[in-house]
Amino acid sequence: MRASIFYYTFLVIFIYFVSPIIICAFSEDVFVIFSGEELGNLEPCGCSEDQAGGISRRYTFVDFFKKQKNVVFPISLGDFPKSCGRQEEIKMEILYRAIREMGYVLHNLGEKDIEIGPQLLSFLSQTNKVDFLSSNVKPIAPFPIKISQYVLKEYIDLEHPFSIAFLGILSKSLLSPHMVDYVNVYDPVTALEPLVKQLQNKVNLIALLSHAPLEESIEIAKYYPEIGLIITGHNIDEPEDSITYINNTLIISSGRGGKYIGVVRYSINNKVVERKSVEIVPLDHTYKDSQEMVSLLREYQQILKNEDLLSKALLAPPSDELSYVGSPACGMCHKIVYEHWCKTSHGTAYSTLVNVGHQYDPECIKCHTTGYGYTSGFLNYEKNQNLINVGCESCHEAGSGHLKDVNNAYRSTSGGNCETCHDSEHSPRFQLNEYWRKIKHPEEILRKLPKNNRE
Question: Do 38 and 70 fall into the same domain?
Fold first, then answer.
């Protein structure tokens, strides 16, 4: 009896430490948890109370399943960055560190991941413990990019063994011209054929991460009924409405921007794998922020500050060769309006960033200061204290011309440019008439300065 116990104990320890692809557990439920198309959204910006998403809430969500002693496979569909540039590179590194801490199994390559450049891809693929996956993308760049054609994971219970193979594709329709300089992207259907044949009799479940439009994923499901689960999506904003079945193949998306997370639960009974439930869960305020990710987000903001990204923005000249002068200059004549503005949310917009430590974040600064991104606009607090907050010139254009000559008409506004910042992502409840009443100027009697004081 003792020998038997010793044998099984030794076997479990040996498997745990020696084999990197085997997970040991004694649960009969298996959870595939998936996310994708982050597009650089590390956290809700906080401009609206009902914003969803963020890596802090996601960590809490995934950690809950792990603490229940479940077998959990967290996976990523692809597209961590939104575009190119230094801030997006920093975000991508932070996101990879985040999913590593969450215990993600893999990250399927999306076109945004590839567009950011081969150097960063090479660095992350060599140093990160999370596998890069793509069954139809092969690197040709001089930088060594480590990409797995498939990722095999096994669940071992002494009574009910379970194995799952993850495949991944990137649609050729999403390629940009310069990507072909360092990767080859093959036809997905052709690339998948030998892999599906190789795996179909060796695993209990084949799952495909299809970084492609929904229509293309449906066609792949029809071609390969051996694939039991297809996680898809590209530009799907409301993933709850995108759940599709092609025969017995589930096709599902977790949407865009990291706002939702998907969960598919399987049970194992007498070597039969059965899909038990499918859920798309919004990561809303009911999920608490994890301290692990809060610390990582603070580090992200510190990196932005240390690298002084605010001062490295590409600057464009304002229209008509004008320059920004700042709201205090406007207040010299428009005293009543200026005092009213100081009490509005626009007049205190910069302090809201300071309160949460985001005052060095270019993405936040552009909507909380005046003229950021223009040659005479806000650059940093030390140089441009007169341009903090959403000032007069945010709505009425740069004011140098009007300051020199009051007869040079100052552009009026009807709110047409409000949605530059009050978009669906940052201000989902925005209603022009309602918001306009909060900032509408009071009646005033203009106090004109002597001409020599205006020059």
Answer: yes
Rounded distance, CA 398 to CA 404, Å? 12
Residue 453 CA to its chain's centroid (Å)? 50
Mean residue pLDDT of the chain comes to 87
Sheet holding 272-282, edge to edge: 131-133, 106-108, 71-76, 29-35, 260-269, 272-282
Tens digit of pLDDT for each residue in 262-299?
999 998 876 678 999 999 999 999 999 999 999 999 99
Closest CA relative to residue 257, chosen from 229, 283, 279: 283
Q: With pLDDT > 90 as the criterion, what percentage of the chain qualifies? A: 64
Look at the chain and report how many structural domains it folds into. 2
Task: Give dist(CA 203, CA 95) in Å, integer.
Answer: 30
Please state at what angle helix 86-101 crosses helix 118-127, rounded to 10 degrees.
20
Phi, psi dihedral angles at 327 (to 5 degrees)? -65, -35
Contacting residues for 95 by C-beta, under 8 A, at least 6 apart = 38, 42, 55, 80
Domain identity same for 195 and 233: yes
Q: Higher-confidence residue: 412 or 35?
A: 35
pLDDT tens digits, residue range 379-423? Answer: 999 999 999 999 999 988 898 888 888 777 677 776 678 888 988
Domain annotation covers residue 46: yes
Reported pTM = 0.87
Residue 309 lies in a domain: no
Cα separation, 143 vs 430, in Å, equals: 46
Cα separation, 165 vs 169, in Å, equals 14
Which of 251, 270, 299 is where one domain is finished? 299
Same domain, yes or no: 276 and 324: no
First to last CA, the chain: 98
Distance of alpha carbon 31 from alpha carbon 278, whole angstroms: 10
Range of the domain at 332: 315-454
**Both 177 and 150 in a single domain?**
yes
Domain holding 397: CATH number? 1.10.1130.10
Shared domain for 262 and 343, answered yes or no, is: no
In a domain, 142, yes or no: yes
Q: Is residue 8 part of a domain?
A: no
